[in-house]
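step 4 of 6: structure.
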Amino acid sequence: MSKILVFGHQNPDTDAIASAIGFSYLAKQKFNLNTEAVSLGQSNEETKYALAFFNIELPRVIKSAASEGVDTVILTDHNEFQQSISDINELNIWGVVDHHRIANFTTANPLFFRSEPVGSSSSIVARMFKENQVEIPKEIAGILISAIISDTLLFKSPTTHKTDQTIAQSLAKIAKIDLKTYGLSLLKAGINLTSKSEKELINLDAKTFLLNEKSVRVAQVNTVDINEVLTRQEILEKAMKIENEQNGYSDFILMITDILNSNSEILVAGENNDKIEAAFDVKLKNNHAFLKGVVSRKKQIIPQLTI
Amino acid sequence: MSKILVFGHQNPDTDAIASAIGFSYLAKQKFNLNTEAVSLGQSNEETKYALAFFNIELPRVIKSAASEGVDTVILTDHNEFQQSISDINELNIWGVVDHHRIANFTTANPLFFRSEPVGSSSSIVARMFKENQVEIPKEIAGILISAIISDTLLFKSPTTHKTDQTIAQSLAKIAKIDLKTYGLSLLKAGINLTSKSEKELINLDAKTFLLNEKSVRVAQVNTVDINEVLTRQEILEKAMKIENEQNGYSDFILMITDILNSNSEILVAGENNDKIEAAFDVKLKNNHAFLKGVVSRKKQIIPQLTI
């Protein structure tokens, strides 16, 4: 049987990697598919910490399906084509497992598509193991729970669904970890910002959205000290403007998220500051503004910009 | 809690009605939603037969969500906006259960979306009862199994998935019917073509598709005698041309499907006969052609026209 590649979005976060690894394993057991979990970019520090902790190899980074001789793929943790593999338009999509809005996604044939408005794609993958009565190996439970912790900021994000907690608790038993202790270590592993250049920071967890026919880039960095990141504002803005020019983004929005207090500062560069102010009912001062209680790009940034 | 309307596509077939009734019931039990199953058009003869057989009331026909004072909906058996309720662009979509290609569908927020490439949306709904350990009442089992029979032409269509048969067998037990006896009666109830005008025939089960930016109408009628339908060709063609003019379709394709021998004759009216000939590798004679083994619009007509 031909190989099917399974991968999360570009600029993978822990959920993109974990959901691909988890669903690839499940699809082998349940649907008898010849799957391989791969990645569309380097794993970040948090993901590397989780993979190392549970003794899982880093997935291979691939550039296109064609260069792998593959014509069928499975997408996890995304569906929008501009966030996917470069040659997505030429491929068969066997299936999708996701927890984001659906947009810029189209197929010629019916397919497997599973999306739920829950905290992470890995929560859905974990539930599917249960539904299909497939046993979850310890290391798979470990990487899935890492993704749930990462996406929900240890259940503090408003994207958290009540089922995420119960699923995480059952995964914690299989993975043999203490949820809170491991969770805090994992989140801290992701906050090593000082070692990164401004260009790296704004690309660490960045996604492109088509909003009112404009291409808008929204990036997020987690921190325990917003002001520390803001000391680098000037160079960050320069880097954001270069990205806009090189990629045709109308706007670049950087969310600097305080994961301890669950707030974000947004720093913006682009053409539509007035619309951004209106969308969040704030006044930008020196191109940035504080958004109280905002930590979720998906739930608290993108829908507001869509209207 | 505000009411949520649940409905299948325009020109509802049995699966559109059954999946809405089934999922509406399940959503009440499982997600505690205040749902009502409704319909975007009159039920056809086959559906009426099934509803009467299992003693279920015909769902109300509605025109728009706004006129019902409702802002949130659930779609079953379709996702493409042009096949949905008139004001779909202004509504919140809570969820979708479907088994078709995904296209012309977009949301601002994450949602529940469940699609599988199986024979009918009602198969998926039936499986979800099981997954969520909700008991299926006799009449719901009856309408769900009717939809599976209808969509798979009693398991003869190439859209049939192996799980459709096992699900149908377990539903048959709950509904207390003999699958084959009831199935043939149901399919025959849908083939009362002589009593229908040509205009009614071409609208009985018709859907609009955006193919290469053109609006194409594809209708299907089931029969046990293709030639009997073709005796009405002249008036059928006139009616198809009027539909094209009034609705801006570039092409109208009528599938006349022989459900006993599993073949179709297509009768076409429009601008792109050459492309239709190329897509199916046939020569149209007097605007019609025989497609051996073709019975599924979804699997054997639309993908071929998409390339």
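step 5 of 6: annotate
 - The mean pLDDT of chain B is 95.
 - The longest strand of chain B covers residues 214-223.
step 6 of 6: archive
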